[in-house]
Amino acid sequence: MTLHFPTIADCVGNTPLVRLQRLPGNTSNTLLLKLEGNNPAGSVKDRPALSMITRAELRGDIRPGDTLIEATSGNTGIALAMAAAIKGYKMILIMPDNSTAERKAAMTAYGAELVLVSSEDGMEGARDLADSLQRGGRGKVLDQFGNCDNPEAHYTGTGPEIWRQTQGQITHFISSMGTTGTIMGVSRYLKEQNPQVQIVGLQPMEGASIPGIRRWPEEYLPKIYQADRVDRIIDMAQREAEDVMRRLAREEGIFCGVSSGGAVAAMLRLSEEVENAVMVAIICDRGDRYLSTGVYDTPHD
């Protein structure tokens, strides 16, 4: 008898959907969280990372042994480093130097080469440097911001999972927006099933610094982003996102990052406006990626 076991790549996706118990208070709404930190490399970005490499292989754009390049603020870089290790590629990752120590260490643990740009240059500078390295023949940029294989991973994976897990009862989907791949792919799938599903995006308020999400300058707006796929955008204050993040850990046992706290904060706001809704928010990653920042060190309320 031949035994068949999954590879680590087979473990990407099919993450749990769990119900909030205490934070919603007395409400007729059902508030659900998609736990993407359960992916092998610890974030929702495992899905597009594997998708971008696998689909590029199928097209013949890349071959094992090639060097891949990507600008990242953290989670995509870790996921790509894992996917490159699985598939046999060299990986150059470019990121702002103010990214957390845990993220940098995780990328190099998977064997990636890390190139840092200043926090002043930020993600825009990282993206410009990635393009420069590609022009210089150092490797191929996957371009999560303009690569349709990014949202496709969520159209074929995350969206169908949510529809199935809620038995088609979902009324609202809430997601932080960075590359916008998650919200674009999930929106496309859910709207095909039920155009009445409300798609809500989250971006930081002016001056807020929430890891993984951005208010992009017009010239750097991700090419994959289509404004008509998002019904509503909520601006989130950094303090509110961090407060809800800490409450999730202390009151719900859900340990996550700041952008996930923001997504749940937005969901709690929405829950006060409607009744008998079934809401799903994306929990992008796990909180252990943020411990060195001290964001969890504040006293208990």
SSE order and pairing:
Elements: E1 17-19, E2 30-35, H1 46-59, E3 67-71, H2 75-87, E4 90-96, H3 101-109, E5 113-117, H4 122-135, E6 140-141, H5 149-165, E7 172-176, H6 181-193, E8 198-204, E9 232-236, H7 238-252, H8 258-271, E10 278-283
Parallel strand pairs: 2-10, 3-4, 3-6, 4-5, 7-8, 7-10, 8-9
Antiparallel strand pairs: 1-2
Q: For the terminal residues, how far apart are their CA atoms? A: 58 Å
The secondary structure category is: alpha/beta
Biggest pleated-sheet summary: 6 strands, mixed
Spans of 5+ residues with little confidence (pLDDT < 50)? Answer: none
- N-to-C series of helices and strands: EEHEHEHEHEHEHEEHHE
How is this structure best described in words?
With 301 residues, the chain is an alpha/beta fold. It has helices at 46-59, 75-87, 101-109, 122-135, 149-165, 181-193, 238-252, 258-271, and strands at 17-19, 30-35, 67-71, 90-96, 113-117, 140-141, 172-176, 198-204, 232-236, 278-283. The protein has a six-stranded mixed sheet, with helices on both faces. A four-stranded parallel sheet has the order 5-4-3-6, sandwiched between helices. Strand 3 (67-71), helix 2 and strand 4 (90-96) form a beta-alpha-beta unit. Helix 1 packs across helix 5 (149-165), helix 2 runs parallel beside helix 3 (101-109) and helix 7 (238-252) crosses helix 8 (258-271). The longest helix is centred in the middle third of the chain and has 17 residues, at 149-165. It starts with 16 loop residues before the first strand and ends in an 18-residue tail after the last strand.
